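Study this chain:
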Amino acid sequence: MLDFTHDWRLVVASLAIALMAGFTGLSLTRGASRLAAPRRKAVVSMAAVALGGGIWSMRFVAMLGLQLPISYFYDALVTLISALVAILLTGLALLILHFRPRTASSQNLAGAIIGIGISGMH
C-alpha cells in the first residue's frame, strides 16, 4: 500500500472553490426561468461555466493536494476534456431545469446528468 498525505491548504482551497462556484452559479440562475429565452440562454451558459468549472476545479485542486511517493503527471488534453465534460453536462442539466417545466422527473433527470458529468470527468 502506498503512503500518502494531503496538503491541508489545497484541501481548504478546494472547499473554498466549491463554495464560491456554487454561490456564483446558483446566484446567476436565480429567477432565470422568468427571463426571455435569449437572455436565459446567456445566463444558463455563464452558470454552466461557473458550476461545471467549479466542480472540476475543486476536484483538480484537491487532487493536487494528494501527495504520493511516486511520479505522476496530468496530460493536458485529457485534463481539458475532463473540464469540458463537467461544464457541458452541467449546462445540459441547467437547460433542462430552465427551459422545461419544473417537475420531479425533470429535476431527477438534471440531477442524474450532473452525476454522469461528475463520473465522466473522472
